[in-house]
Amino acid sequence: MSEPVVRLAGLSRSFQQGGVSIDVLRGIDLEIAPGEIVALLGPSGSGKSTMLQAVGLLEGGFGGTIEIAGTKASALPSDGRTRVRREHLGFVYQFHHLLPDFNAEENVILPQLVAGKGRDEAAERARELLTALGLAQRLDHRPSQLSGGEQQRVAVARALANRPTLVLADEPTGNLDEHTADGVLEQFLGLVRGEGSAALVATHNERLAAKMDRVLRLHEGLLE
Ligand SMILES: Nc1ncnc2c1ncn2[C@@H]1O[C@H](COP(=O)(O)OP(=O)(O)OP(=O)(O)O)[C@@H](O)[C@H]1O
């Protein structure tokens, strides 16, 4: 079998609150296979975002080991983690975090330029993704000129622009009404599958989770 895109061993995280230590993650073991789409379910406060932050190499303070695409990222200094993040990971958040002064196409081009791609190639890739997401007529719209569902679609295109090995999505449709959320999630999953990326998607929503390849449940700091 090919190497997992994520391998967690004994992942733990505690926070100090008012002199009390709260153990949010208590030794999580997990492997995600290439191309696998995994839902991370759990009630509010169960630690889903904390777990995505660990896998996304966005913060320190975690115990255990985090491997991304065969690299033991948790053992790397900050610049090494940044490199792994840029090479392998894409992010979608509940709120789109698009750059307000740039249009849809430019928002998808920019991370590719940061990754060293040429402008023409990056623009072609941006148009390909935005067209696949039904936004061919919205390329030159700024985020404020787009609906919530359209903003999230641009955020999906941005996350996939550099062909990540793994997409991390934290409540990617949590800010949308049910009908729009369903549409955006279907497109997101279709595109991720088509691209062959793996995904780890945190959600409260059982119905959306059921559309994914595997469902993990976070309960009292462990996966059920
Ligand atoms: N920086 C922090 N300092 C202190 N406590 C924190 C910090 N970040 C998270 N926590 C605590 O860790 C627990 C898990 O939070 P987390 O945001 O990971 O949960 P979640 O499952 O993503 O919740 P939600 O679905 O509401 O986003 C919460 O009790 C939260 O208060």
From TrEMBL:
<protein>
    <submittedName>
        <fullName>Lipoprotein-releasing system ATP-binding protein LolD</fullName>
    </submittedName>
</protein>
<keyword id="KW-0547">Nucleotide-binding</keyword>
<dbReference type="InterPro" id="IPR027417">
    <property type="entry name" value="P-loop_NTPase"/>
</dbReference>
<dbReference type="GO" id="GO:0005524">
    <property type="term" value="F:ATP binding"/>
</dbReference>
<dbReference type="InterPro" id="IPR017911">
    <property type="entry name" value="MacB-like_ATP-bd"/>
</dbReference>
<feature type="domain" description="ABC transporter">
    <location>
        <begin position="6"/>
        <end position="224"/>
    </location>
</feature>
<comment type="similarity">
    <text>Belongs to the ABC transporter superfamily. Macrolide exporter (TC 3.A.1.122) family.</text>
</comment>
<dbReference type="GO" id="GO:0016887">
    <property type="term" value="F:ATP hydrolysis activity"/>
</dbReference>
<keyword id="KW-0472">Membrane</keyword>
<keyword id="KW-0449">Lipoprotein</keyword>
<dbReference type="InterPro" id="IPR003593">
    <property type="entry name" value="AAA+_ATPase"/>
</dbReference>
<dbReference type="GO" id="GO:0098796">
    <property type="term" value="C:membrane protein complex"/>
</dbReference>
<keyword id="KW-0997">Cell inner membrane</keyword>
<dbReference type="InterPro" id="IPR003439">
    <property type="entry name" value="ABC_transporter-like_ATP-bd"/>
</dbReference>
<dbReference type="Pfam" id="PF00005">
    <property type="entry name" value="ABC_tran"/>
</dbReference>
<dbReference type="GO" id="GO:0089705">
    <property type="term" value="P:protein localization to outer membrane"/>
</dbReference>
<keyword id="KW-0067">ATP-binding</keyword>
<dbReference type="InterPro" id="IPR015854">
    <property type="entry name" value="ABC_transpr_LolD-like"/>
</dbReference>
<dbReference type="GO" id="GO:0022857">
    <property type="term" value="F:transmembrane transporter activity"/>
</dbReference>
<keyword id="KW-1003">Cell membrane</keyword>
<dbReference type="GO" id="GO:0005886">
    <property type="term" value="C:plasma membrane"/>
</dbReference>
<dbReference type="GO" id="GO:0044874">
    <property type="term" value="P:lipoprotein localization to outer membrane"/>
</dbReference>
<dbReference type="InterPro" id="IPR017871">
    <property type="entry name" value="ABC_transporter-like_CS"/>
</dbReference>
<keyword id="KW-0813">Transport</keyword>
